[in-house]
Amino acid sequence: MSLNVIHSISDMQSISNALRKEGKSIACVPTMGYLHEGHASLIREAAKQYDIVVTTIFVNPLQFGPKEDFERYPRDPERDIAIISAAGGKYVFIPSIDEMYPPEYQTTITIGNISKSFEGLYRPGHFEGVATVVAKLFAATKPDAAYFGQKDYQQTLVIKQMVNDLNMGIDIQVIPTLRESSGLAMSSRNVYLSPEEKKSALVLQSALQTGLSLIREGIRSRISIEEQMKVILATCPEFEIQYCNAALGDTLEMPDEFSENDEIVLLIAGFLGKTRLIDNMAWSGND
Fold this sequence. Notes:
With 287 residues, this protein is an alpha/beta fold. It has helices at residues 9-21, 37-49, 77-87, 97-100, 119-122, 126-141, 153-165, 195-200, 202-216, 222-233, and strands at residues 4-6, 26-31, 52-57, 91-93, 145-149, 171-175, 239-248, 264-272, 275-283.
């Protein structure tokens, strides 16, 4: 079966309805395009479990702030289509901005506490844009499940909250972050980095690994963990820290002391030159 490219919401809904009548299961992989191996891994994982994988490509203006990189965000739909096809995708939904947000459009979705800290603090309105577009993509593709990468950790919690609160009945699967051979977390925005900046960016992984090592050693003081991660980040003065924290993996709350069985996530964000980088690592107690 060749890859089918759909541009209208009504066409996508009709196709999904027909597939469901045939008894096919559907998984959705939402993306903003400029795909890399991390995205391909999501498509492959979805294809193992579901009959049909619909990948969406939409650079969503609602989730970008006024001084962010919406205009220069990398785009290459022909390359994306080739990657999707090779990974086992069957359909790709590529709507225009006018298709998603016509002139009369007025609705946004706001998520509560889980969206207020970290990315929500530094990117006001970001998660309203994310929740709104993902809800619309789900309405268009009508999936049984959706696949996301762990790299956008807080985003996965926001989407899970929305799906649960709005009784969407969609299984949200989160796949571990894929990394380049150097250890740098794969990201479409890595294209912005110079070779020297890519080397410098490895300090994020080093700091996160330091935090994980402390947790494995039994350290449960949040401040102690964070201080040691910041010591590592300080070895790269070009990296401008926005946040470097340890938090509860399910709520993102930050107690002074974690309990022995707490799931803990380590989160870092900041700027390297003009490029904003985020990364995280999670501790489940079984690592």
